[in-house]
Amino acid sequence: GEDVEQSLFLSVREGDSSVINCTYTDSSSTYLYWYKQEPGAGLQLLTYIFSNMDMKQDQRLTVLLNKKDKHLSLRIADTQTGDSAIYFCAESLYNQGGKLIFGQGTELSVKP
Amino acid sequence: DTEVTQTPKHLVMGMTNKKSLKCEQHMGHRAMYWYKQKAKKPPELMFVYSYEKLSINESVPSRFSPECPNSSLLNLHLHALQPEDSALYLCASSQGVGGAGNQPQHFGDGTRLSIL
Predict the structure, then answer these.
(1) Which of A28, A32, A82, B92 is surrounded by the fewest CB atoms within 10 Å?
(2) CB-closest option in B2, B48, B98 to A42
(3) What pLDDT sits at residue B58?
């Protein structure tokens, strides 16, 4: 069945790089997404990658996709306290009518 | 600022009340979604509208009734809710829903609903 897994917590120091990992099981993924959710807010689309790509870079964010291992990662360079939030990985599947399969979310804590 | 606008931001209602949540987008998107989210959990899909027609209902209780008056608006009508329905209700929109062309979903900031 469809399943997306993430570790629940990550703590880093300000200025360090953060790497948030995600694994998924369904090989019919079309797009894979990273969303950020700050307390009291909705989900902010950070970046996404099409399943036939292996890397995408956008300013401080780098997404790596290993399709063979079904592993997705999000690297945040020069992590700031404003990056503290919950990060959700999600996949959309071919012909599933727009349904997203979300991971449980990784709570990133950035210490000064 | 989010391009998907939800009102109200907060709502407190009794179990016998009737209220509605509203969602609006002006990105020309043809798919709109309702999600329910509990604290520190991922969103759970409730309904999907595609071209103003209900395409997915994830076995949601009938006390939640969605409505899509036009391609920019999505409502969620609430009646006789239970305390366990207290949650953050998120609306999202995307260009479309079909095939390999699934497009990113853009979320609003949600309505925080409390049932007394």
Answers:
(1) A82
(2) B2
(3) 94
DSSP three-state, residue B101? helix
d(CA B4, CA A77): 29
In the block, tokens 């062309």 appear at B101
A4-14 pLDDT per residue, tens: 999 999 999 99
DSSP string, A51-80: TT-SEEEETTEEEEEETTTTEEEEEESS--
Q: What is the DSSP letter of B110?
A: -
Which strands make up the sheet holding B73-79, listed edge to edge? B4-7, B18-25, B73-79, B64-70
Contact between residue A34 and residue A49 where contact means Cβ atoms under 8 Å apart = no
pLDDT for residue A98: 78
CA angle (B85, A32, B74) in 5-degree steps? 40
Which residue numbers of A have CB closer than 8 Å to B's CBs?
A: 30-31, 33, 35, 40-45, 48, 86, 88, 90, 92, 94-100, 102-105, 107
Write out pLDDT tens, residues A13-60: 999 999 999 999 887 778 899 999 999 899 999 999 988 889 999 999
| C-beta atoms of B40 and A105 within 8 A | yes
CA dist B38 and A100 (Å) reads 17
